[in-house]
Amino acid sequence: MKRPFFLKRKPSPITVRFGHSEFLKINADRYDWRDIYHWILGQSWPEFAGVVLGVYLLINLVFAQLYLLGHNSIAEMRPGSYPDAFFFSVETLATVGYGHMYPNTIYGHTVATVEIMVGMFGLAVITGLIFVRFSRPIARILFSKVAVVGIYDGEMNLMIRVANLRHQTMAEAQFRMIMIRNEIVKEGEEMRKFYPLKLHFDHVISFPVALILRHRIDQDSPLYGWTPEELKKADTRLFASVVCLDTVIVAPIQSQTDYTFEEILWNRRFVDIYSEKPDGRFIADYARIHDTEPSPGAA
Q1: Distance CA 88, CA 64 (A)
Q2: Coil, strand, or helix at residue 253?
């Protein structure tokens, strides 16, 4: 008999975070067992270790019970001893075989054979998962804590700073910046609209240290003609991303961030973090990555 609709249990919301934004998905499946590989890789290291340990214990508990079901299936095992059956399962799963206990019947040999096969396949799967987790590249890219709007080359610009935290040069870095805000559309509804922001440059061949991304606020800019008060009322936000090639492991990496309106500073610019030594080498002061100063010429 079907459960009445008013007694049906509603699935709990699924939380998805991106930067400062948080979304709650409702009426969506929490798990898709066909994609368990992606789910496992998405867990934190403590969660991953907990899953592996839980599966390992469950397998041994199940096989220990199977050994106990067979009468005298394991020689030298105390009758009805669950600890003996459990530790014999551990030894069999790991193919250690200390020799004190051993299968004594066809049933015992059959269960032990199945467990050895499970152990071989399980070891291959766990080894592959651990290798993928260790080999997965991590983007060591630092974005400035704030975005600034100030004068550059005689015009107002929106600027953020991006720094490479690796001690090797990144290659073929691609930069993107997008703005979203609330606007009233022709149908009279308030909608979130997305605007790509054109940068002075959106690609560099080599990305060794840090640089500033700039969007000129001219007549072609979606920011042109908007006051800070209007942008605040429209709940304006910025999103920035970088995709580049790690030259050590030769793999693409990606990082992204977002800025709320409160994290956009007006009539400011980033301080210069570079200085040059007498021998021609440049110094980059990472302690000043986020520092700003008043923008000359800004109203």
Answers
A1: 8
A2: strand
Residue 236 is part of which domain span? Answer: 141-294
Cβ-contact 157, 177 below 8 angstroms: no
- Of 83, 112, 135, the domain-final residue: 135
Buried b (16+ CB within 10 A) or exposed e, 227-260: eeeebeebebbbbbbbbbbbeeeeeebebebbbe
Question: Could you report the per-residue pLDDT of 173-221, keeping only the tens digit for each?
Answer: 999 999 999 998 888 898 999 999 999 999 999 999 999 999 999 999 9
Tokens for 94?
């790991």
Handedness of CA 216, 219, 221, 227 (dihedral sign): positive
Q: Which residue has the tokens 């793999």?
A: 251
pLDDT at 6 over 50: no
Alpha-carbon torsion, ordered 71, 75, 78, 80, to 10 deg? -20
pLDDT for res 272: 94
34-77 pLDDT, tens digit per residue, is 678 888 888 888 999 999 999 999 999 999 999 999 888 999 99
250: left (phi over 0), alpha (psi -120 to 50) or beta: left
CA distances from 294 to 41, 60, 218, 267 (A): 45, 66, 21, 6
Of 240, 163, 242, nearest to 208 by C-alpha is 163
Cα torsion 93, 94, 96, 100 to 10°: value is -30
Does 174 lie in the same domain as 99? Answer: no
In tens, the pLDDT along 254-283 reads 999 999 999 999 999 999 999 999 998 999
Q: In which band, very low, low, confident or very high, does the pLDDT at 159 lie, cut at 50, 70 and 90?
A: very high
The CATH code of the domain that includes 205 is 2.60.40.1400
Measure the CA–CA gap between 254 and 239, rounded to whole angstroms.
13
Residue 293, token pair as written in the block = 């100063």
